[in-house]
């Protein structure tokens, strides 16, 4: 409210008129100062001052509260910033330590790389030398393989020829041996029975132990235990074969006359067949007996060319 609002509107005042009026009414002059309007104006002014003061205090209190909050927030932000700065300083220290460690590692790796490059150069030189040696060895292996293949072909030819000759020899001698299992031999005798030359007489010989045994025999031989005992005594397997053949011959009823063609053999089964053995022939180093009844002619057989 402007100051002029508290004043009464101006009016003309005449001091002479006031004195005349006072003289006519009483002996004491009086002046009307209009106190009541002035008092109202003063009270209104004081009320305005009080309201302004109260509003100012309220505003100051609000601003103080805001200032305290702002200071508190600023202090918190400052503390947070200082914490972050400290954290970043610690990270900086760690990064510097890591950088220093990486520098040492780089130096070590550089040294290792130089060493490896040197080793690589040496390895390349050795590889070149080994490659040259490998080429030489390959040539030698190729030559050796060619020679082995040639020898293999020769051996295959010899094997085929020997197999055929062995088959002819087995058929001629009337005797064949087979491996049934480890250290067990099956001996087959033929050309024993004149009425059936293909008939087989078999004996199974077990040589897996020091004492030989004959677990099976077809047809059975009554003298087989004695023959096995004699074999274990003299350890002569060839003589055992001849004795077994002689024992099988003894089983034939009405044995043929020694002068018959079947008995006029130079060995077990020899004489029934005369195979062509090519460059190899069977010969006897002793005179041939008139008849073979004990297989003794097998002792005189030799394989010659």
From TrEMBL:
One of its GO terms (biological process) is cell division. Transmembrane segments: none annotated. It is found in: Nucleus; Chromosome, Centromere, Kinetochore. Signal peptide: none annotated. It holds the Pfam family Spindle_Spc25. Keywords: Cell cycle, Cell division, Centromere, Chromosome, Coiled coil, Kinetochore, Mitosis, Nucleus. One of its GO terms (cellular component) is nucleus. Component of the NDC80 complex. PANTHER family: KINETOCHORE PROTEIN SPC25, KINETOCHORE PROTEIN SPC25-RELATED. Belongs to the SPC25 family. Acts as a component of the essential kinetochore-associated NDC80 complex, which is required for chromosome segregation and spindle checkpoint activity. This is Kinetochore protein SPC25.
């Amino acid at each position: 409210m402007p100051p002029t609002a508290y004043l009464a509107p101006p009016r003309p005042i005449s001091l002479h008129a006031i004195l005349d009026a006072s003289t006519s009414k009483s002996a004491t002059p009086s002046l009307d100062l209009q106190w009541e309007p002035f008092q109202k104006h003063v009270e209104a002014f004081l009320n305005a001052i009080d309201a302004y003061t109260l509003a100012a205090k309220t505003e100051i209190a609000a601003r103080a509260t805001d200032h305290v909050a702002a200071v508190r927030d600023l202090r918190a932000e400052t503390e947070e910033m200082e914490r972050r700065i400290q954290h970043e300083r610690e990270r900086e220290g760690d990064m510097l330590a890591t950088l220093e460690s990486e520098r040492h590692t780089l130096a070590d790796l550089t040294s290792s790389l130089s060493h490896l490059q040197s080793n690589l150069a040496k390895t390349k030189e050795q590889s070149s030398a080994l490659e040259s040696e490998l080429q030489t060895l390959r040539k030698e292996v190729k030559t050796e393989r060619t020679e082995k293949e040639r020898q293999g072909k020769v051996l295959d030819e010899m094997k085929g020829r020997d197999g055929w000759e062995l088959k002819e020899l087995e058929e001629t001698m009337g005797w064949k041996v087979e491996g049934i299992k480890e250290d067990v031999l099956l001996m087959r005798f033929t050309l024993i029975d004149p009425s059936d030359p293909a008939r087989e007489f078999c004996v199974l010989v077990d040589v897996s132990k020091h004492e030989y045994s004959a677990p099976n025999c077809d047809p059975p031989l009554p003298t087989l235990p004695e023959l096995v005992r004699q074999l274990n005594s003299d350890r002569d397997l060839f003589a055992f074969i001849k004795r077994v053949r002689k024992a099988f011959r003894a089983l034939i009823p009405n044995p043929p006359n020694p002068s018959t063609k079947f008995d006029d053999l130079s060995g077990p089964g020899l004489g029934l067949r005369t195979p062509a053995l090519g460059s190899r022939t069977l010969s006897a180093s002793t005179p041939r007996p008139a008849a073979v009844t004990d297989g003794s002619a097998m002792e005189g057989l030799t394989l010659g060319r």
